[in-house]
Amino acid sequence: MKTIKKLSILIIIFCILSCSSNDSSNEDETKATVKDIYVCGLEQRSSTGKYIATVWKNGVATSLTDGTNDAIANDITVSGNDVYVVGYEENVNGAQVARLWKNGVQVDFVNTPRSAADFVEVSGNEVYIIGLLYENNSNVQKIWKNGIASTLQGDTRSMAVNNNDVYTVGIQDGNARVWTNGAVSSLTNGYSSSGAYDVEIKNNDVYIVGAEKIGNASVARLWKNGVASN
């Protein structure tokens, strides 16, 4: 789940920043305090056997759907006092339909069968969602900004928004890529297969984690502002 991946990359970033500032005094060091922990996913109701899209806040579960149809929550983000969750719910015909919930209430988003929402980010009043729509006999990745859809390139694996700039990362033509507001950049020289799997931004620096195949081995990679760490 993306929540876990976010924790992983943030730990990596924290370690890098800590190691690069060993000469700082103890007085300059700050400690982050985690106030609330949010997790999203699904629960199975024993009486019906249906999956219910669910959010846990500090271990307390809140159902997003009533169990009439199967549903799952794929991603969650918190902006101020608002909690945004995306996923999908099956309709009466068993087809997936993308869903957005804000503070536990379903928001009109996409009513198209054979769709799903995978990632959500919020910046100010802008809500960005990445998901799938079935078009022309195939699944097409889309990004919605406040409900307006655009088609994405490649196989997108994660998203981050900073100062109204939208960063997406993933795989295209077998290689790790990052897109900034739709403009693509390669993270490797393209001589070996690679992929970018998550992106986070801290102090305007863009951190991307992924992997690259070196010989017969898959090697973990961390890129800071497009440059691979050794």
Write structural notes for this entry.
- The structure is a single chain.
- With 230 residues, the chain is mostly beta strands.
- Helices cover 8% and strands 57% of the residues.
- The chain has one helix and 19 strands.
- The strands form five sheets. Strands 4-5-6-7 form a four-stranded antiparallel β-sheet, with no helix packed on it. The chain has a four-stranded antiparallel β-sheet with strand order 8-9-10-11, with no helix packed on it.
- A hairpin with a 2-residue loop joins strand 12 and strand 13.
Keywords:
230 residues; mainly beta; 4-stranded antiparallel beta sheet; 1 helix; 57% strand; globular
Cα separation of the termini: 27 Å
Helical content stands at under 10%
Strand content: over 45%
Rg, nearest Å: 19 Å
Write a compact overview of the structure shown.
This protein has 230 residues and is mainly beta. The chain has one helix at residues 2-19, and strands at 38-44, 51-57, 60-63, 71-79, 82-90, 96-102, 105-107, 115-123, 126-135, 138-145, 148-151, 155-162, 165-172, 175-180, 183-186, 194-202, 205-214, 217-224, 227-228. 32% of the residues are buried.
Topology at a glance:
Blueprint: H1 2-19, E1 38-44, E2 51-57, E3 60-63, E4 71-79, E5 82-90, E6 96-102, E7 105-107, E8 115-123, E9 126-135, E10 138-145, E11 148-151, E12 155-162, E13 165-172, E14 175-180, E15 183-186, E16 194-202, E17 205-214, E18 217-224, E19 227-228
Antiparallel strand pairs: 1-2, 2-3, 4-5, 5-6, 6-7, 8-9, 9-10, 10-11, 12-13, 13-14, 14-15, 16-17, 17-18, 18-19
